[in-house]
Design a protein that fits this description.
Elements (H helix, E strand, L loop, with lengths): L1 H34 E7 L14 E7 L52 E6 L15 E9 L5 E15 L15 E6 L1 H13 L1 E6 L13 E2 H5 L2 E5 L2 E5 L8 E8 L2 E8 L5
Antiparallel strand pairs: 1-2, 3-6, 4-5, 4-7, 5-6, 5-8, 9-10, 11-12
Length: 272
Amino acid sequence: MKNVRAIWMIAISLLLGLAAVVVAGKWVIERTSIDASGVIIASRDIDVGTRLTPDMLQLTDWPRANMPVGSFQDPKLLGSRVVKVNLVRGEPLLESKLAPEGSTGGLSGVIAEGKRAITVRVNDVVGVAGFALPGNKVDILVNTRDESDKPISKIVLEQILVLAVAQDLGRDETKAKVVNAVTLEVTPEQAEELDLARSVGTLSLVLRNQMDRSVGTTEGVRTQDLLRLRVATTLGTPAPVYRSKPPARKETVEIIRGIQKTEATLSGKEIR
């Protein structure tokens, strides 16, 4: 009898446990269906300037409390839209990452409103040895001649966005891309300045830190600035510091012969 009672107790415990699991599972499913909603995400990596197609999109569940601002639930709303930033697989599609409706694919869909795209020729060195990639910010240097027909190098534009290198809009920063042309995003006024700068001199790109927003106010550098003598301070008194061998020190002495007095200049020699 004792064995039969123990078997019944075990069977009842198993049934109660199974019922608890079923009830808990239904509760979790109900809670999930209540707190989740569908969001369109990228089904694969998408490059900037790409026109979206259905095979690039995927509907997935997303916590309703953490819905991304500007997200989409209907893939039909994304038909023929163009992305203006790189997207990675699983990243939600947001309105802020898309070009305005009606934009065509490619470079024109990436240009910000009120801006222009201008392409300048560079070589592998001027183009920062291929490290100026789409999405980077650069400063523009021009090497030309001033009003006195003397060579001068001057920063003419700062914090200019690189849209493309050659004809590549991809922003893969894993390796440098040696190219012969760089497309920049500028305002109309900057486009005029850049066009004039490349007509009067040679352009160079200066890659800058993406987080650096400081303004580099300079007067430019001329040949005499590179070759001028530097001045050092010795005991609070400025003293000349020469790049080459300093000139020999000259001393003046008086020579008296009878009633005649003359002066002589010596160059580091002793008088005997």
